[in-house]
Task: structure prediction
Amino acid sequence: MSNNFSLSSFPQLETERLLLRETTLQDAEAIFAVFSDPSVTQFHNLDTFTSLEEAMSTTGYAYAVIERRAKRFERGEGIRWGIACKQDNVLIGSCGFTWNPQEQSAEIGYELANTFWRQGIMTEAVHTILEFGF
Result:
């Protein structure tokens, strides 16, 4: 991975089954669906979402997740792709990198709706972002 990460636009990646794309405010309901499941959030650094209305407001959790990801990308500190199935383009999770150029290190993070666990989806997505990163 380059120490000088800079892209002029958010890259969309594609696999056999998936679209890896930027998350937008239109994805707020899908983000809520993923993060309202305690089995998904148990190892995540944010609380389980409890209210769709709160999550979808401009001060809510889903909005904050989308904004944080966009700002991290704009500052060149990381990139987080929304994971969507090709057939309907609905978000089912996300994966991406954050990095520290001073320490020449990067960290991968991800989450996936539990109805999609054990289908090789995250393996497919992470393999693709690693190819992109290196």
